[in-house]
């Protein structure tokens, strides 16, 4: 499920307000790591040896 950006930001703000400083730091570390993974994945070009991911995407939904 993809949320609109404003909704996602609102949910993150609400969630982070309930966290301890340590939990918030860990949460933000996870978000940073995920952003890096997405950036790296977008920069990868598919190779002929790569399996077709269309079936995988369908399985995730």
Provide a descriptive summary of the structure in words.
The protein is mostly helical. It is 70% helix and 0% strand. The chain has three helices and no strands. The longest helix has 23 residues. The protein is elongated and about 45 Å long. The mean pLDDT is 82.
Strand count: 0
Helix content: over 70%
Number of helical elements = 3
Low-confidence stretches: none
Proportion of residues in β-strands: under 5%
What is this entry, summarized?
With 61 residues, the chain is mainly α. It has three helices and no strands.
Characteristic terms for this protein:
61 residues, mainly alpha, 3 helices, elongated
List the helices and strands and how they pair.
Elements: H1 5-17, H2 21-43, H3 54-60
